Amino acid sequence: MNTGSNEPVVTEAAEGGEGTAKPEKPFGSRAPEFIKARRALHLSWQVGVFVVGLAVVIVGIIMLPLPGPGWVVIFGGMAIWATEFVWAQLVLRWTKRKVTEAAQRALDPRVRRRNIILTTIGLVIIAALGGIYLWKFGLEMPWKINDQ
Questions:
Q1: Best CA proximity match to 80, nearest among 64, 60, 101
Q2: What tens-digit pLDDT sequence spans the chain (148 residues)?
Q3: What is the spatial distance between Cα 122 and Cα 101, in angstroms, rounded to a whole number?
Q4: Alpha-carbon torsion, ordered 54, 56, 59, 65, to 10 deg
Q5: Which of 7, 58, 85, 147 sits at 20 to 30 Å (Cα–Cα) from 69?
Q6: What is the CB neighbour count within 10 angstroms for residue 90?
């Protein structure tokens, strides 16, 4: 949360008493000071960061239906934007918080037990279907099966 001060914010997970408090980086531009000191240069820097981040995000969107780590590249573009824009920093912090919460839920013993049971059931069904296929057609590939 931006309180208007330049003091680092302590994350909620650290306040719970687990480990040491890890301050988050303050909001705002991470451009070098000599760039921030000159308005025209800082604006050019921001345009450059936006264009590079946009190119990375577009490549990530293209990778979604194609082979490649689309979401990772999209979040990489967001991280590039977050070096300069507060809105991208807020989106990244929200995403990190949600991913951490999902990871904690996934580590819950009841959820893990349910996931293991569902995976086992799925593997049994796949093995049964594979066995039926082998019983009926043998090791023939589907495109070589004659009408029987």
A1: 60
A2: 444 445 555 544 444 445 555 666 667 666 667 666 777 887 887 888 899 999 999 999 999 888 888 888 998 998 888 888 888 888 888 988 998 988 888 788 888 888 899 999 999 999 999 999 888 878 877 676 666 5
A3: 26
A4: -100
A5: 85
A6: 14
